[in-house]
Amino acid sequence: MTDTQWPRYEVFKQDNPRKPHEAVGSVHAPDAELALQNARDVFVRRPSAVSLWVVPASAILMVTREELEANPEWNDGEESGAEVRPFHIFTKTSQRRSMTYVQYMGQVEATSAQAALQQAVRRDEFGSDTVWVWWVVPEAQINRSGADDIDSLFAPAADKTYRQQTHYGFVSPRRQKRGRQEKK
């Protein structure tokens, strides 16, 4: 049996210019441009986004702290003669259910994703002691919304009405039972 799903893209959303990008989920799409549109439809339901990035999931190096501890020889070192490229580092620092986001922490220059991760693990600025999951994203693989995309991507969300769940009536089982008894 062959896989008939489109490739998966991880979605990174920035709620406002003062906040970092966060991984908010994933979408399936035939290409990066449609992945960006799907990400807008799925993750920008309220007018809080100022930027969206989509990256093919296959391009992201995802490593847990346990994997690093279980295999201290995980990095095969720098590739000699390879071109130095920018990589973005994302981390997850909490296992709390409400804190599922992988947040942007910064950028490093390296010859490979593994070398970028090795640099990030060694640098104090990334808080290596508290990281549960590391994501290394190659700059070249990011398809991002641009300044001229803001109106078409995010402005329609401003017109959408959003209601909290409490706005909709909820009939508890006790109230249902009482209502049935009153009808008798």
Write up this protein.
The chain is of the alpha+beta class. The protein has one domain. The protein contains five helices and eight strands; from the N terminus they run E-E-H-E-E-H-E-E-H-E-E-H-H. It has helices at residues 32-43, 65-70, 113-122, 150-158, 173-183; strands at residues 8-14, 22-28, 51-56, 61-64, 85-92, 102-110, 133-138, 143-144. An eight-stranded antiparallel beta sheet has the order 4-7-5-6-2-1-3-8. A hairpin with a 7-residue loop joins strand 1 and strand 2. The longest helix has 12 residues, at 32-43. The N and C termini lie far apart (57 Å).
Question: TL;DR of this structure?
Answer:
With 184 residues, the chain is an alpha+beta fold.
Helix/strand layout:
Layout (H helix, E strand, L loop, with lengths): L7 E7 L7 E7 L3 H12 L7 E6 L4 E4 H6 L14 E8 L9 E9 L2 H10 L10 E6 L4 E2 L5 H9 L14 H11 L1
Antiparallel strand pairs: 1-2, 1-3, 2-6, 3-8, 4-7, 5-6, 5-7
Shape field:
extended
Low-confidence stretches: none
Q: Return Rg in Å.
A: 21 Å
Strand order of the largest sheet: 4-7-5-6-2-1-3-8
Q: How many strand units?
A: 8
H/I helix tally:
5
- What share of the residues does DSSP label as strand, in percent? 25-35%
Give the integer mean of the pLDDT values. 82
